[in-house]
Amino acid sequence: MTKIGDRTNYCTDVTENDIGKTVTVKGWAAKRRDFGGLIFVDLRDRTGILQVVFDASKIKDFALAEKVRSEYVLAITGKLRRRSDETINANLKTGTLEVLASDLEILATADTPPFAIDDADGVNEMTRLKYRYLDLRTEKMTEILRLRSEMMYVARDYFHRNGFWEVETPYLGKSTPEGARDYLVPSRIKNGAFYALPQSPQLYKQLLMLAGTDRYFQIARCFRDEDLRANRQPEFTQIDMEMSFVTQQQVMSTAYGLVREIFDKCGGVKLPETVRQMPYDEAMRRFGSDKPDTRFGLEITDISDLVKDCGFQVFERAVGMKGGSVRLINAKGFVDEDNLILSRRDIDALGEWVKTYKAKGLAWISVRKNGELLSSITKFMSKETVDAILKRADAKPGDILLFCADKDEVVFKTLGALRLHLAEIGDLIDKSKFDVLWIVDFPMFEWSDEEKRYMAMHHPFTMPYEADLKYLESDPARVRAAAYDLVINGEESGGGSLRIHDRELQKRIFNALGFTDAQIEERFGFFVNAFNYGAPPHGGLAFGFDRLVMMLAGTDNIKDVIAFPKIQNASDMMTQAPAAVDKKQTEELGLKIVEKI
User: Fold this and answer.
1) Residue 540 lies in a domain
2) Residue 244, SS3?
3) By C-alpha distance, which of 303, 152, 281 is closest to 220?
4) At residue 289, what are phi and psi to the nearest 5 degrees?
5) Is position 260 within any domain?
6) 528 and 458 within one domain
7) How far apart are CA 326 and CA 383, in angstroms?
8) I need a labelling partner for 91 at 20 to 30 A (CA). Which of 78, 119, 143, 404 fits?
């Protein structure tokens, strides 16, 4: 028990209306300034900072105040008063107030921290993650945790008001062959058998629709054993939802209503009432991506028809190959001599940069101020062909045309990444703007060179368009899916689809994916058997909750919005997980650790 009573206020809950009141506040000593018989301490709790004054003539035990150091945990009672005019701090919410302490208790002492909490931004990320509990004390991280909590509350409130039930689904389930690599959990009871941690609650939420739940949601933890990126972690959170007896537009409308409410209530951002929809094929043609950032231009232009017989063999070969094309981006004004954004050295560097995306290089034509063309490829083509290219690209003096010639898969990936790279170089993106659109009409399947078969672009339970079912066996690449992704500022914030509810159609889809009846029974038997007992039409969607938090928090690093994240190699700097375990544990599981080849 502490000698000082219960806390009466959080640090920044006090206002000028409380001046003259005796308050008890508790928190950490963020900063200490000693002026002899007068000591000032900035007390920090999760709400912010409140200045406390220890006056030797006003406090019972001034010697105790002299012992206070950085990050000591304190309980303080005193009278709230207004600061003198010359000491007001306009940068603090409580900058006009301070507590004149009459009682102090040191609840815990602290070693000197490995970094200053108020200067953590300048600290190496690995150090901050090793001492994450200290990093979480910073104003930035405290605010993100508060924002994340508020967003969860708003989501739950929205779903409850719209007739959804929150249902938890298992963490220990069965491994399925589609999607990313599973995290496996060995069974102690059934030797040689494994559970899989869920990549998503997909099968369970569909089974809940078969069970008659009608409207389900869950803020679900998900796990994928895949390489990490700035917006990807091995364990992450989804806002998961599913609805029965609905159309595609009803699912999309309900899901977008949730996003609008979260952005409005938690970020003060007013998203438009309606969202434009863009077919997948259009998104790829114009932006080279199924999650296009349309806050800026730099759209892709197809010139395949102009260069199929142009005399430049690189272009001709690309157009001649199956699924090949030649496309360009006009970086308008990037080589204007008066405002040079790309130098010749920069252009050469881009030629090397695009090889990351399997492109062989980057052809270019620069239009100078006097109309002169600089390029290494124009000599291979007629003036008429070059003029036609310039016209289609709307090329003007100061522009540079950047070309990619290859299979469409490579061209789209390369130019899609290049336009984003150029936008950053040219500072073309208004970061204060939120750009929202639905991508629809996705392909049902995509070809895998590694597997030598068609794979489900989303998952094998996605409903194909009825009009395309005639192509299912003869030309699977032509089949479109009733799938939809909500894209915000070039990030897929959520995606879903209508689901198959007809058992015969589900079997056709499995067959198109190359599964035999025996494989279907082994991998999905419990799921497909449920469809024998009456499955309602249903559909749903899952939002990447961490990505939504990133958007409202204004960060591009997912580690900023997760309390205890992993680093690039999927390890935890703080706990040092993953780590070796006792031999007894592996023996109980029937496991033998062998050296990895």
Assistant:
1) yes
2) strand
3) 152
4) -155, 150
5) yes
6) yes
7) 18
8) 78
Q: How are strands ordered across the β-sheet holding 235-244?
A: 165-166, 215-223, 235-244, 538-544, 491-498, 483-488, 436-440, 276-279
Residue-number span of the structural domain to which 61 is assigned: 16-108
Contacts 24+ apart (CB under 8 A), 272-278: 272/436, 275/436, 275/437, 275/438, 275/486, 276/437, 276/438, 277/437, 277/438, 277/439, 277/440, 278/437, 278/438, 278/439, 278/440
pLDDT at 369 over 90: no
Q: How far is the C-alpha of 102 from the C-alpha of 453, rounded, in Å?
A: 76
Q: Is residue 117 part of a domain?
A: no
Confirm whether 591 is domain-assigned.
Answer: no
Q: Could you give the 3-state DSSP secondary structure of residue 104?
A: strand
Q: Please name the residue that has the structure tokens 């941690």.
A: 197
At residue 343, what are phi and psi to the nearest 5 degrees? -85, 175
Min mean pLDDT across 53-67, 479-493, 506-520 is at 506-520
Task: Return the SS3 of 132.
Answer: helix
Structure tokens belonging to residue 234: 């091995």
Does residue 575 sit in the same domain as residue 447? Answer: yes
- Using the 8-state DSSP alphabet, how is residue 527 labeled? H
CATH value at residue 305: 3.30.1360.30
Rounded-to-integer distance, Cα 148 and Cα 335, Å:
43
Largest pairwise CA distance in the chain: 94
Mean pLDDT of all residues in 47-51 = 97
Predicted model pTM:
0.91
- Burial (CB count <10 Å: 0-12, 13-18, 19+), residue 91: exposed
467: left (phi over 0), alpha (psi -120 to 50) or beta: alpha
CB neighbours (10 Å) of residue 86?
5
Which pair of structure tokens corresponds to residue 243? 């609805």
Contacts of 379 (CB under 8 A, 6+ apart): none
For residue 578, whether the previous peptide bond is cis, meaning omega lies within 30 degrees of 0, is yes
Q: Are 41 and 73 in contact (CB under 8 A)?
A: no
- What is the rounded average pLDDT of the residues 444-452? 82
Q: Tell me the one-letter amino acid at 107.
A: L
Backbone φ and ψ for 60, nearest 5 degrees, come out as -65, -45
The single residue listed with the structure tokens 């030629």 is: 351
Which CATH number covers residue 535? 3.30.930.10
Same domain, 310 and 384: yes
Q: Which of 80, 209, 128, 146 has its CA nearest to residue 496?
A: 209
What string of DSSP letters covers 317-329? HHHHSTTEEEEEE
Same domain membership, residue 440 and residue 577? yes
- Domain count for the chain, please give it: 3
Boundary residue ending a domain (83, 108, 133): 108
Count CB atoms within 10 A of the CB of residue 536.
14
Write down the pLDDT at residue 1. Answer: 56
> H helices then E strands: how many in the chain?
16, 22
Among residues 395, 425, 455, the one where a domain terminates is 425
